[in-house]
Structure formats: C-alpha cells, structure tokens
Amino acid sequence: MELTPEYIMLIFTGFSMAFIISLIMMPLLIALSHKRQWLDDPNNRKIHSEPVSRLGGVGIFLSVLTSGALTPILVSGFLKTDLTLFRLLHPNILFILATILIFIVGVLDDFVELRSMYKLIGQILAAALVCFGGALISNVSIPFTGVELNLAWAAWPVTLLWIIGVTNAVNLIDGIDGLSATISLIAFIVYAIVFMFTGHAVLSLLSFIVAGGLVGYLYFNFPPAKLFMGDSGSLLLGFILAILPLVADPKSGTSLMMPITLLSIPILDVFFSIARRWRKGISFSNPDMEHLHHKLIAIGFENRTILTLISAVMVILAIPVLLFFVLPSEKVIPFILLAWILIGILFMVLHWVYHRKIDGR
User: Largest CB tally within 10 Å, which of 5, 12, 151, 243?
Assistant: First the structure.
C-alpha cells in the first residue's frame, strides 16, 4: 500500500475515530469507576492525594479495537474497494491474540492485584505467542563493523527478555500524571511515520490509531489527572511498542534501534531500578520511590515541568531515528550512539543530584 490519497484517508479516519471514541469513553469510565468504587486510592508510594479512576487503559484498548475494526470498513465503503479488517490483519493474528492476553493480564492486576509470579507468567505467554508468530530477534548488528550476529538458539530467550523488559519499563514509568502516555504517544507517532515510509502500511495505521486513542486519554490524564490508565493500559502500550518493530522486520539486526532510542528513558529507568534492587538485596517486585519521576519531584520539579522536559528529550531522540531511515545509516548511527550515551549521563547526574538533595549534602 503506497502513500496514496486513499491511504491518507485511511490513517486520518483511524486516528480521528480512535481519538473521538477515546474522548467520549473516558468520562463514562470515570463515572463508572466512581459508582463502582473502581478507584486507585492514594498511599505513601503514590503521588496523587485523592482516589482516581484506573480504567483509562480499558478506554484506550476499546478505542483502538473499535477504530481498528471500523476504519477499514468505512473507508472501503467510501472508496468502494475490498478493504476489510481481516484482509489487513489476518497475517498477524497471533500478535493480536498476544496483545489481547497482555491486556487481560493488566485488567486482572488492576482489579485483583495479581501476584508478581502470575503477572510474569501471563507476560511470558503473551511474548511466546509473538515468538510463535515469527517475530524473533534472530540477528544483532554491531555498530560501525557491518557485522550481524546470528543468535540461533538464543533468539527465543532474547526476544522474550526484550518484550517483557520493554512492557514492564513502560509500566514502571507510569508514576505521575501524563508521563507514560506522553512517552508512548511520541513513540507511536514516530513509529507511524517510519512504518509509513518503509512499506509497513498496516503497522503505520495501527500506530496512528493507538496515537489517536492516547490523545483522547491524555485530555483526562494531563495533570491534575481525572483517571489513570492502570496496568491494563501501561502493559498494553509497552507490549505493542516492544513487538511492532519485530513484526515489521524480525530478521533485521537494526530492528531494535528505533525502540531502544525512543524508549531509552523508560528502559534506562528500569535498568537502574533492577540494579538498585540487586545492590540493596531486595526483591525486584518490591516497589520503591526512586524511579526517574520520583527523583525529579524530590529535586523540586513539578509534574507539568517534568512532562515538558521529558517530551523535549523524546523529540530530540526522535530526530536521529527519523534520519536513520532517510540518510545512509553510517552517517546517523554515531548520533544515535551519542544520544544513548548522553541519556545515560543524564541519568547518572540526576542520581547524583537526587542523593545530594536527600542526604543534605
């Protein structure tokens, strides 16, 4: 599918429909949450001080599902072409089932607080469905050498680790109003543009649809938030962000360059979180108050300022990603590596400033 007027109509319809459905559904879900007391209550680990609806993820999922189902039908009827949801998505049915499974895991965790082991098992099963569907990280490129390593038997564990890691990274960064949704929105917009110009029309359409659902959600999640996405939303978004590049180009050694760069903030946050727990000898499942957003708040930044700063960093990270698909890769990779190094340095500086602040030095 080329970038034709028909395709432009398709993505515009998909984005707009997801946005409108999300915008309509969120107030209904907020009202339902308060009526049924399906609320995220404040405690000493959380930033908010009043009970807030946690059904935002359900709204995102339903807006994406509805728009994904109706957009091809509406556009095909208008254009009088054979464009159906099944025709677009049937090659990716295992990926769709995996996404539904991860959403169900998130919903269950929101309502009954699954034990960490059960939650992990659900994530492994969903990631395994993706692997069975053929989206395996089978090669890894070594920058500047032109060498690609064939992972052979290690492809499965590496792919599982990647999917589960990114899924939880987006989940863990969801600690203040608007943060996870803003990071995900920028990432999905970049995904959509890259997929559009690399011949992955269906994945581009899906990315635009998710972006539309997120814009509708952010209207109610922007600080001060009226609802949260819960684990049903953060796990769903992280999972989709992890698997789309693999679905697009599973055998390419550079397929992870885009998500690693765009998601370097949540990825590094979860990396330092694991290292911190390992150093202190505490369980990885134990929550703490030392994630990126917690440190920025402790230093003195307000919620909206944090969103502005991280959005600016995300936009800067998006530039070399987009250029990678326009210019020769050898000219862009140094800038991507530099971006990774600078983000790592920023995290270490933030860690130093944070501990200077709380230690009173």
Answer: 243
- Residue-level pLDDT at 283: 78
What is the rounded CA–CA span in Å between residue 216 and residue 259? 23
118 CB-near residues (< 8 Å, 6+ apart): none
94, 138, 195, 203, 350 from 91: Cα distances, Å: 8, 20, 17, 12, 44
Q: Considering Cα of 266, then 267, then 268, then 271, what sign does the dihedral take?
A: positive
Instruction: Show contacts of 3-9: CB within 8 Å, 24+ apart.
Output: 3/196, 3/197, 6/75, 6/79, 6/81, 7/201, 9/75, 9/78, 9/79
**β partners of residue 140:** 149
Phi, psi dihedrals of residue 251, rounded to the nearest 5°: -95, -10
Phi/psi of residue 173, nearest 5 degrees: -80, -10
Nearest partner of 18 among 88, 77, 78, 69, judged by Cα: 69
β-pairing verdict for 139-142 and 39-40: unpaired
Query: 310-329: per-residue pLDDT in tens?
Result: 999 999 999 999 998 888 87
Between CA 214 and CA 232, with CA 10 as vertex, the angle to 5 degrees is 25
- Residue range 161-165: average pLDDT? 97
pLDDT digits (tens, 9 = 90+) for 9-33: 889 999 999 999 999 999 999 999 9
What pLDDT digit, counting tens, does each position of 276-315 carry?
Answer: 888 888 877 777 788 899 899 989 999 999 999 999 999 9
CA–CA distance, 245 with 318 (Å, rounded to integer) = 15
Q: Rounded to an integer, what distance in angstroms lies between the CA atom of residue 193 and that of residue 205?
A: 10
Report residue 284: phi and psi, to 5°. Answer: -65, -20
* Domain residue limits at 51: 5-359
Q: What single letter denotes the amino acid at residue 192? A: A
Q: Are 263 and 188 in contact (CB under 8 A)?
A: no
Mean pLDDT of all residues belonging to the chain: 88
Helix, strand or coil, per DSSP, at residue 269:
helix
- Indicate the pTM of the whole model: 0.92
Spatial distance between the Cα atoms of 278 and 282, rounded to a whole number of angstroms: 6
| DSSP annotation of 152 | G
Distance separating alpha carbons of residues 128 and 94, to the nearest angstrom: 10
Count: domains in the chain: 1
Question: Of 164, 177, 163, 136, which is closest to residue 52 (Cα–Cα)?
Answer: 177
